[in-house]
Amino acid sequence: MLKSVLAVVDNGDIAAPFLRAVAGFAEARGAHLEVAVLTPAPMTSPALAPFGAVYVPEVVLMGDDAANVAQVKDALKDCDSPRDVFGFHDDVAWLAGDLRRSRQVADIIVMGALETWATPWLRRRVAQTLIRASGTPLLILPYDADITWVHRAILGWTPSPEATRALHTLIQLAEPGAAIDIVTVGDTLHQCGREKDAHAEVKRHLSRHGFAAEGHWIVNAVKPPAETLTLYAKEQKADLLVIGGFAHSRVRDIVLGGVTRDFVEASTVPILIVG
């Protein structure tokens, strides 16, 4: 049961549609909504972040922070869910750490797609920090997403502690009797087949919770796994795609890339990432 939802934005005007969607999500569940508004110090260009910072007196940055918070409050003025809106202001390089240390305890954290952020680098940094270090599931919503209820979900499955935690989180979010597809993507049928026993165990667990669970294997050596899962979720008209986040070391993800990073960079379906 969700009772605390934390949304994170960096621009109240750009994020207004996202904020209203999150407010509806919280209201439907009787949850309290908190909104963290991040205001970075001025930069010569957001594209240069984390470099290109321009010095301004603290009092000026405080004023920018207050104006940003006011924009968020205005975007939520017609929403009925109980809420708190608070701001952080700092150099863009430190804001993700400020948030992690100060306000990260919630049942779920929600962020918008790239289009809802003024500083793309900050969005990526915040998402990666929260997935790795907050211990809280992160829900990323596309620009025009509506995820009030979850009647059909896709669980991207590769056995790992992160995937198991994602499974438990999905059980809390999905509606009773929801249809859940357990999907493993591999380069070969043999690679997918190695997860047959794990699929059976996950299906059995979901069935005991009253869900209609089915296992699926997708062989695709051409497209990245993130793209394959996204296409499958769209074909199935799923309300939510769920994965475990950053199952590999950070160095390996930086060098080779990873499913989690791909989803953070481009989210065209609602996706829940559990670290």
From TrEMBL:
Family designation: Belongs to the universal stress protein A family.
Domain UspA: 158-274
Naturally occurring in which organism (per UniProt): Sphingomonas aurantiaca
InterPro entries: Universal_stress_UspA, UspA
One Pfam family hit: Usp
Protein name: Nucleotide-binding universal stress UspA family protein
Domain of life: Bacteria
